[in-house]
Amino acid sequence: MRFYFTGHAEHxxxxxxxxxxxxxxxxxxxxxxGLKIKQQDIAAIREHGARDYPNECCGILLGLAEGAxxxxxxxxxxxxxxxxxxxxxxLLPLESPGAESERNRFxxxxxxxxxxxxxxxxxxxxxxxYYHSHPDHLARPSKYDREHAWPxxxxxxxxxxxxxxxxxxxxxxxxxxxxxxxxxxxxxxP
Length: 190
Description:
The protein has 190 residues and is an alpha/beta fold. The chain has one domain (9-78, 109-188): Cytidine Deaminase, domain 2. The protein is 23% helix and 35% strand. The chain has helices spanning 12-15, 39-52, 85-91, 110-122, 143-147; strands at 22-23, 25-27, 30-32, 35-38, 58-66, 69-78, 126-135, 154-161, 164-173, 180-182, 185-188. The strands form 2 sheets. Strands 1-11-4-6-5-7-8-9-10 form a 9-stranded mixed beta sheet. A two-stranded antiparallel ribbon has the order 2-3. A hairpin with a 2-residue loop joins strand 8 (154-161) and strand 9. The longest helix has 14 residues, at 39-52. The model is unreliable at 1-31 (pLDDT under 50).
């Protein structure tokens, strides 16, 4: 296993989640454990991003949380409702519809969110976080991402460059909602 601080441009090679490596970061003397996820779930997220390119993809991370550790047991790929502009505008209007679109914004249908949550609860699982892609952009949260996120949840972002998955990072919003911090990710083999 190798340990890296993920999510910073100056650590490009280290920020890629590949080959089932373990990623974490240190604060003082403590190693903060975060998200554990199987290699096949990482592959599914990357494939979803490539498939939906040039639009943003989105999905939900399901699993169990125990203490500071979240263990993903499955990912649920969802439709980006922004690909239906009329329906999306009714639910959550964009500030600049000409500058914002399904290429740089995603929206999960609230009915799908509720359906996934109910199904997860019935199976003893919970929503641990969300994932989405950044087409032709860095795998770093945007101001828009921060404004629409909640503390505690894990946010995986995969960069898709010209249809090819690139860097994949994970973030957690601080309690004061001022910034995202990188979240430790351990990639597990099946």
